[in-house]
Each structure stands twice: as C-alpha cells, then as structure tokens.
Amino acid sequence: MLNGCINKMELPVDMNTDVEFSAGDTTYLPINPVWGAERGFQSPIEISIAQDGRIFVADSAAQSIFVLDQSGKIITGFDNLKTVTVGGISVHPIDVDVDTKMNVFFIDGS
User: Fold this and answer.
1) How far apart are CA 75 and CA 80, in angstroms?
2) pLDDT one-digit tens code per residue, 34-46
3) Are 21 and 13 in contact (CB under 8 A)?
4) How far apart are CA 79 and CA 36, in angstroms?
5) CB atoms within 10 A of CB 13
6) What angle (nearest 5°) sits at the alpha carbon of residue 43, between those of residues 68 and 70?
C-alpha cells in the first residue's frame, strides 16, 4: 500500500508581486525583472552562465546571443553575438555554452 502527502502550493497571481514561497525544503523565488521583448528577446531558447556570472541567452528567432549581467541589464561589448552570421548566412542559435576562457560555443538550428 502506498501512502503519500501532497500539499498544493498557490502561485502568485501577479508576477510583479514581491513574494517568496516554499514547498518542503525547496524555496521558489520569482525572477525580477521578467525579461521579455523590451530587451530584444523574441524566442529565448537556452541560457548558459559563465564563471564570472554573465548570462548568455540563445534566441533562435532573433538570430542572436544576448549577454546580460545578473541584474538583467544587457552588457555592451558583445555586439558580434547579435544577429549572428557565418559566411553571410544567418545563424539561429538553439544552444549556447561558455568555457572557462570565455569562448562562446553555440549550435545553429537553421
């Protein structure tokens, strides 16, 4: 015979509400700001976090890899990763990774 206990956890109705809620030993924190189209994202599909804390976001539809700091601000100096092309052909990154030397690797989904 199996016995179990399920506690239903209510999610916040408004994403802009600053709340913290938990379930057992896991705590869930809403990410603010919620990153969306105002930052240029169209279809973010994968993220990778570098050792220095920078966040690399592969966006296939935008044909870009966005680089953000931990507060969600887009970092300048990575303009070559926006509207990525290889040999004049548009690239649609579907995966991104960053190694310890800050080399950026991506998979093209086109």
Assistant:
1) 12
2) 666 777 888 888 9
3) no
4) 19
5) 6
6) 15
User: Which tokens belong to 104?
Assistant: 């950026």
Confidence tier at 56 by pLDDT (50, 70, 90): very high
What pLDDT, in 10s, does the model give residues 70-97? 888 889 898 888 888 888 888 899 999 9
Closest CA to 54 of 73, 35, 74, 69: 69
Q: Torsion over CA of 99, 77, 58 and 21, rounded to 10 degrees? A: 90
Q: Please give the structure tokens belonging to residue 29.
A: 């924190």
pTM: 0.67
Task: Give the separation between CA 56 and CA 70, rounded to whole angstroms.
Answer: 11
Q: What DSSP string describes 55-85?
A: EEEEETTTTEEEEE-TTSPBPTT-GGGSS-E
Burial class (CB in 10 A: 0-12, 13-18, 19+), 30: middle
